[in-house]
Amino acid sequence: MPGIKRVIAILLIFLGPGAIIWWMAHTIENHFIDLPYLGWEYKYDENGRKIDSTAYKIPPFQLTSFDGTPITRDSIDNKFIILTTIQNDCEELENCALGLYHFNEIIYSKMIDHPDSYKNVRVLSILTDKDGNPDSIPSPLLIEMMSEYDQRFWWLAVGDPSPFVSFPYYGDIFKNHPSTPAEGEIGSKAFVNAMILIDKKGNIRGVAGAKKDADMRNFFDLLKLLKKEEFKAERALKNKS
């Protein structure tokens, strides 16, 4: 430690602050917390012992954006996806599974204000009824309301949400977990009221509620950790070359 301090002091004296920042960036390792993978699936031998495990990966799917553009498994490759549902009666906030005000203030506005940092992040909202059943026709009012958002970063789609919510979760698949009306959740299914974080390879990396301010902040922290994980991997690759 004394040796490092001496080197830093010399750099500050002779080369200035810019040099010390450059030196620290290239020599001191930043330790980030890696997010876990959710939805592990296990294989067992004839004696019931675990012999293999695989993290759930989003399977092939077919959605259609509100403007008619297909959205497939290829569409989300190499992108971080924030998966939510959305309902036709979201103009009445208590009937919407996504807390639009908090989401806009805490997450979406940050993406728009810092496009370079979040250029490979997309919000994907699938139209459902309050119980999570696919709804195929977005209402004119919902289309008008969502037209205020940048559709390049927020994809609104119709189709089946099952491929995104069928991962193992606390002894069942996430799709089957019941909602908690006492927490302000709508309908019968928890996934309707959730945000799901999907990494660039299609793995589930985080789940949080989609209604409350605190849940939004926690979820955004998960996204930032995932972005730091990306930065760390890119830097490691750069140092090898």
Helix content: 25-40%
Number of helices: 7
Name the CATH class of the largest domain.
Alpha Beta
CATH architecture type of the largest domain: 3-Layer(aba) Sandwich
The CATH topology of the largest domain: Glutaredoxin
The sequence of SSEs as H and E is HHEEEEHEHEHEHEEEEH
- Looking at CATH, the homologous superfamily of the largest domain is Glutaredoxin
Distance, first to last CA = 29 Å
- Rg is 21 Å
What percentage of the residues does DSSP assign to strands (E)?
A: 15-25%
Walk me through this protein's architecture:
The protein has 241 residues and is an alpha+beta fold. The protein has 2 domains: 29 residues, no CATH class; 182 residues, Glutaredoxin, CATH 3.40.30. The protein contains 7 helices and 11 strands. The strands form 3 sheets. It has a 7-stranded mixed sheet with strand order 4-3-7-6-5-10-11. A two-stranded antiparallel sheet has the order 1-2. Helix 4 runs parallel beside helix 7. The protein starts with a helix and ends with a helix.
Short key terms for the protein model shown above:
alpha+beta, Glutaredoxin, globular, seven-stranded mixed β-sheet, two-stranded antiparallel ribbon
Question: What can be said about this structure in brief?
Answer:
This protein is an alpha+beta fold and 241 residues long. It folds into 2 domains: 2-30, no CATH class; 53-234, Glutaredoxin (3-Layer(aba) Sandwich), CATH 3.40.30.10. The chain contains 7 helices and 11 strands.
